[in-house]
Each structure stands twice: as C-alpha cells, then as structure tokens.
Amino acid sequence: MLGLLQTAQGWLNKTREIDFLAPLLLRLYLIPVFWMAGTQKLAHFDSTVEWFGNPDWGLGLPVPWLMAALAVGAELGGAILYTLGLATRWISLPLMFTMIVAAVTSHAENGWLAIAAGDGVFATERTMEAIERLTAVRSILMEHGNYEWLTEHGSIVVLNNGIEFAATYFIMILALFFYGGGRYVSLDYWIDRKFGQK
C-alpha cells in the first residue's frame, strides 16, 4: 500500500513540470477584466471622477480625480503587464489595493453575493427582495414580451453588486503577487533567468 501511495505521489509530483499553467491562466483571466474596467473608466473619465467623489450617490472618495487616475492606471497597466508577464508582482500591489477600495467603498454594503439569490448562507433581506422583484419582472416579460427570445442566451438575473467578484479578483491577484508570472511564458521569468542572482 505504501508503495502504491509513493508511486501515486511521484505521478502527482510530475505535474509540477507544467505548474507554469496556473499563473498563466490567472493572468489570462484577469487581463480582459482589468482592460475593460480601465478602458471604461478612461472613456468616461469625467463621470468616473464625479462618481468617485460624490458622497451622496457615489463613493465619496477624497481627491477623486487622483483616485480615478490611479484606478485607471492600475487597471490598464495591470492588463498590459499581465499580458507580458512583466513586473507581475509589482503591478499586483496597486491592483490588490484597487480591489480592496472597490470592495469597501462600492460593494460591501450589498453583502457578499454578486448576483442576488433568495436562499443560501449569503442571502440577505436585500437579495430575497430582489428575487421577488425578479419574479415580477419575469412575469411581466412572459406576458408582454418575447420571453423565450429574451432569455435564449441566458437567464435574467438581478445584479446584487456584492463583494464576491472583488474578493475573487483579490485572491487571484494575491496568488500572482506571491508566485509571480510563472515560468516560460512571462518576461519576468526570462529576465530573472538572465539577470537574476546566481
């Protein structure tokens, strides 16, 4: 039995030869997330600044122009540097900060869930009420709209805008912060191989 376990462990250890896939896939997943977020903020920069600074209907952040510029820079810079696998650990720092700010200022008041759910451990009064509204919307669309066509490519949901996505992205970025861009398919790897300490 011990021999069988050792053989299985040996096979498992062989997968480390392709361990570069994990950071590569994390980077590839995050690139479009940050590119889209950064380009949207940049394209509507004035309204982004207004939203960042307004305490009544926005985030109420201090120095909103600077905060918006830093968010855009981190997101666009992150997308570009993650694409290259360059300065992966360094760019992860402002990206983690951006996710923390987003979670605290924009998402925390909505609870955990990104999409409203009426049951489960993370359901709140807010999400349960959203499900009631969703049921009403579906009913109206079934009666007055082409519901099958509207839902042909996906269900209608209510965005709860909780911290779920920001927390998930933070954890992915944290992994890249600790492990870097990975072997072979990152410039960090080749630069370290060429110029790193022997």
TrEMBL record:
Transmembrane helix as UniProt keyword: yes
Transmembrane segments: 20-37, 57-83, 90-108, 166-185
Localization per record: Cell membrane
Predominant place of localization: membrane
Keywords noted in UniProt: Cell membrane, Membrane, Transmembrane, Transmembrane helix
GO cellular component: plasma membrane
Topological category with respect to the lipid bilayer: Multi-pass membrane protein
PANTHER family in alphabetical order: DOXX FAMILY PROTEIN, OXIDOREDUCTASE CATD-RELATED
The family this protein is said to belong to: Belongs to the DoxX family.
Protein name from the UniProt record: Inner membrane protein YphA
